[in-house]
Structure formats: C-alpha cells, structure tokens
Amino acid sequence: MDNTPDRYVTVLLEVRAKPGKEAELKAFIAGTVTASRNDPGNIDYEPHEVEGRPGTFIVLERWDTHEAFEGHLRAPRRQALAPRLLELLDGSADDGVRFLRPFRPAD
Question: Taking every annotated instance into account, which residue ranges of this chain make up the domain ABM (predicted)?
Fold first, then answer.
C-alpha cells in the first residue's frame, strides 16, 4: 500500500448459503446494503452473486479507514442481525473475509 496515495480499506466478503437458503441469504444481503452505505466512512458497498455458483455471494466494501470498517461491524443493527445470518450461512462469515491491498505500477 506504500506506493498508492489511497489509504482506504478494501474488504472482500465471500459467503455461501446453506442448501435451500440461497434466496433467503440473497434477500438478507440486499437488506443490508442501504444501511451499510450510510455508515460513517463507507465509500462503497456492493453485493454480487457469483455466476455459475448458486448461493455464493461476494460483497465488495471500501471504507475510509480500518476504524470505520470496525465501527460498521460493531453497529447495533449488525449485532442484532448476526443470529439470522448464522442460520443462513454454510460455514463462517469470518472465513470469507479478505482485506485487499491496492497497488499501482511504478512510473
């Protein structure tokens, strides 16, 4: 990240629905978008469905700072939604979190 002027935090979240819960997980994720985009420090929050992999979803997030991302995770509404998310996921959401580091070619 040293060779880029951008200091934002990019997070990629990949999750998979339990069998039979694909539509419910998609609706759940869609329901989080507006509130997440309005969280302090959010730059971008875009959910995607993976083509050819039914029930697999990716959310690409960008935040001003790591603290803004952490604040998003600690938001009371997220804490309230966590039990429902766990009912829908095949595996752990934590296993699907990846922090991305931007880089640019040298001049």
Answer: 9-99
Neighbouring CB atoms inside 10 A of 2's CB total 5
Q: What is the pTM of this model?
A: 0.86
Tokens 């934590």 -> residue: 94
Across 25-38, b (16+ Cβ under 10 Å) vs e yields bbebbeebeeebee
- Candidate CATH numbers 3.30.70.100, 3.40.50.2300, 3.40.640.10, 3.30.710.10; the one for domain 10-56+66-100: 3.30.70.100
CA atoms lying within 13 Å on the CB side of residue 100: 14
How far is it, in rounded angstroms, from Cα 98 to Cα 11? 6
Domain residue ranges in the chain:
10-56+66-100
Residue 97: helix, strand or coil by DSSP?
strand
